[in-house]
Amino acid sequence: MTKLTRLALAGLFCLSLAACATQQQDLTPPPAKPVDAKTKLESGRR
Q: Composition bias, kind Basic and acidic residues: at what positions (predicted)?
């Protein structure tokens, strides 16, 4: 019974380490670059 308990605790410890080791990806898009005056004039955007 002791070996089974130790094995279960070791498994839970390994799972917790694996969960903490993986990082969430940052899926937010980069901020849009501001449009300069020349581009505004050429494209007609405001």
A: 35-46
